[in-house]
Give the backbone structure.
Amino acid sequence: MSDALKQELHEKLKNGVINYDEDMVAEAAKAVVENGLDASEAVFEGLVSGMQVVGDLYEEQEYFVPELLMCADAMYVGLDILKPHMEKKDLGMTGVVVMGVVQGDVHDIGKNIVKMMFDVAGFEVYDLGRDVPLEKFVEEQLRTDSDLVCLSAMMTTTMVGMRDIIKQIREKNPKVKIMIGGAPVSEDIANVFGADGYAKDASNALKDAINMLGALKQLQEDTK
Ligand code: B12
């Protein structure tokens, strides 16, 4: 029964995003909460999965910019309801993260999902937003003394800016860990740009961050 209900609500969240039906999303998200179902699962199986279909529809030229924006609005209606109910995770490691979408790029949906994962895991997140000037990442890393910098880019044209940011951060602080992501980014690109890591989605981003910070803290202990 509860499994059938869960599937039904995930479908409603997903279809609500695809059909930019904010009421449907709100109703399904509230039902997830009222029935004590897992809010994280609903975010990923419902909302994010719907947004992925929206991306495909855009690429097939079924959807255009106005639809994308309405779908994103519907997704945020669901996130606002579900996020406070996402279980705080204790993964045995937290840290300070500076995060943003690189200059020239306004695609921030993916970055916001990654941010949410870090928030839920208890990280202190400094979110610089989108279309962030390259030097701002360097300044904020130094100001906050963050352990990690997360860079997001969704276009091949803006992705190349990551290389400069990484270079500039390394010059000022060789120890900080840098993770990059976004649709055009890959493991190979992360290696070429000199990042410490790449993750294909928000769950892997958190997992990899925990591993990186574990290694960083161990190194700090060893060199004390
Ligand atoms: C939604 C969308 C938009 C929205 C963005 C709204 C917003 N506030 O974000 C709007 C309508 C504004 C838009 C505008 C444009 N867009 Co657009 N857009 C998309 C679309 C359809 C979906 C992106 C998305 O939100 N996906 C859903 C989220 C959940 O997934 P995600 O972003 O990939 O994020 C996940 C991972 O990548 C990863 N991740 C993301 N960031 C990070 C960071 C780190 C550190 C890590 C570890 C992981 C990570 O985790 C996330 C969660 O799991 C994509 C197509 C696609 N299939 O990706 C095109 C796409 C990105 N857009 C594209 C283009 C060209 C444009 C425009 C130039 C169009 C135009 N002619 O005006 C403008 C550019 C404006 C600009 N200067 O940035 C192209 C880019 C092509 C390229 N290779 O360069 C794409 C690929 C579509 C296409 N095939 O042509 N777009």
